[in-house]
Amino acid sequence: MVFSSNFFIYVFFPLFLLFYFTAVKTFPKSTKAANAIILLFSLTFYLFTGGFFVLLLLAVIIWNYILALAIEKYRKKLLLIVTVGGDILLFLYFKYAIFIYENVLGLLRLFSQSFQTVTLNIILPVGISFYIFQALSYVVDVYRKDVRAQKNLFSFALYISMFPQLVAGPIVRYSSVDKEISARVCTFEDVYHGICRFIFGLGKKVIIADILGQAVDSVWALPDSNLSTPLAWAGAVLYTLQIYFDFSGYSDMAIGIGRIIGFHFPENFVKPYTAENLTDFWRRWHVSLSTFLRDYLYIPLGGNRKGAVRTYINLLVVFTICGLWHGAAWNFVVWGIYHGLFRMLEYFLKDKFHFCCSGIVGRVFTLFVVCLGWVFFRAESVTRAFGYLGVMFGGEKLAGLQFYQFGYYVPVKVWVIALLATGLAVFRLPGKFRINDCAKGIAAVIVLLISMAYMSDASFTPFIYFQF
User: What residue ranges of the chain have pLDDT lower than 50?
Assistant: First the structure.
C-alpha cells in the first residue's frame, strides 16, 4: 500500500482520520487513545505493505526498547555495541547478504571454477533502511544522554512504526517527536496546512513524477545501440526531475499526515536543485539522511578536525556508505563515490584557495554534476551507466534501428510537465513572498481533482525510495 494508491486515499486514510479524531474528541486531555489508534493503523499499514515482515518490525522495536533502557541505566559502551551491532547485522543480512555472497563468489571463481553455487532467496523488508536508522539514532542518543529512554513500550513502538514515515522516511530523530508523543494539540491551522501539504505531495507524485517516469522508463528500456544523444540527455534530465518530485512528494505527504495529527516532522527537501555547490546540495537533499550520516558517522570519524587528508578519507567513506545505503549494487557505490570525490574537490579548493562555487554559475554547474550522477543511480549496472554516459557525450552508434521518433518516447505532454517541474524545482521565490491560506486551499483543491482524475484508472507507481 502506498500513499498514491486508491485504497489508501479512499479507504485507509479516511478510516484512520475518523477513528483518530474520534479518539481525540472523546479523550481530549490524553494522547493515549489517539496514540493507540496511530499504532494500530501503523502496524496494519505495514502488514498490508510488508506482509509477515511486520514481525521483524516488532522484533526490532522490542530489541531496541529493552536495550536502550539497559544503556540508560548502566551506561556501558558494550551494551551500545551489542545493540547497534544487532541492528546493523540484521540490516546487512536482509539488504546486503546476496550482494556480498555474489561478489565473494565472483572473486573465488577467479582462482577456481569448481565452487558450487547456492541461490540465496532473501526478500528485502519494506522500509528496513528507515526504521533501522531511526532505531540506531535513538539508542545512540540515549547513550550520549541527548534523550531519555522511553519507558513506555507502546510509545516507543509508535515512534518506530508511525506509518506516515515508516517505509520511506524522513528519518525522524526521537528528540523531534518525544514531547509530541506524550502531549500534542491538533489545531485547525495544523490540520488545514497538513491537508494542503499532503495534497501537494500527492500532486508531485501523480501529476509530475509518474508522468515523467513513463517517458524515463521508455527511454531507459532502449539499449545503448538504439539511443541517440538527444534522447539519452532527455532520459537523464527527466529522471533528474522524476526522482526529486517522487521522493519529495512522498516526504510532503508524510509531513502533511504528521501535521494533521499534531506531529511536526523535519523537512527532508529544501529546494535541492537551487544549490550553489555540492556541499549546499547535500544540506538540501534528503536532509534526514544527510544529517544522520553527519552526526553518527562523519563527526565520530573525526569530521574535518584531524587535518585535510583525514577529512578527505572521512568524506569518501561517508559518501560510499551513503551510496551503498541506497542499494546493494555497484552502481550505487559508484554514485556515492562520485559525490564523495566532488565533495573532496570542493573541500580542497576551499581549504587551499578559499574558492567555493556560488551564484548562478555554481547553481548550473551543481545541477549538471547532479544530473550526471543520477545516471549511475538509474542504471541497472555500472557498465550500463558508462555506456549511457558515452551516448550522452556524443558516442551514439545507432547500430540498431530506433523504432520510433523522438516524440514517441518524449511526447509533448511530458515536455509540458517537465517545464512545469523545472520551474518548481530550480526557481526560488522571494523571501517575503507568501501565498495566503485561501489561495493555497483553492490550489490544493485543483491539484487534488487533477490527481484523482489520474488515479481513476486504479493503477499506481510505487515510490522510487520504497526499494531502499
Answer: none
